[in-house]
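We close this part of the discussion by returning to an individual protein. Part of our work consisted of pairing the sequence of a single chain with a tokenised description of its backbone. The amino acid sequence and the backbone structure tokens for this protein are reproduced below.
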Amino acid sequence: MRHAGILDRIAGMVVGTPRDIHGLEDPDVSPTLAEIVLDVLGDRDIPVLGNVDVGHAGPNLPMPVGIRAALDATQRTLSLLEPAVRQASEVGDDQHS
């Protein structure tokens, strides 16, 4: 993500709960997930919400792609600001405009 420039375009980050990543449970052997995320983000001052049930391993909540969302890391909330799905007639209208 860093090399692709994605981190330069995000306003917040949601990090899933790590599953079966050996070494993260022993901070004397490996950096913690929080340390890894902070290292990747560098000096970017953006909210980060961690240990959320999203990602590649279950349980994982569906996360829509391409819609606006509001992230409040202090309150630990992620709110979708627009519908995640549209009716089929709306999708068809977009294709003809």
Summary: The radius of gyration is 17 Å.
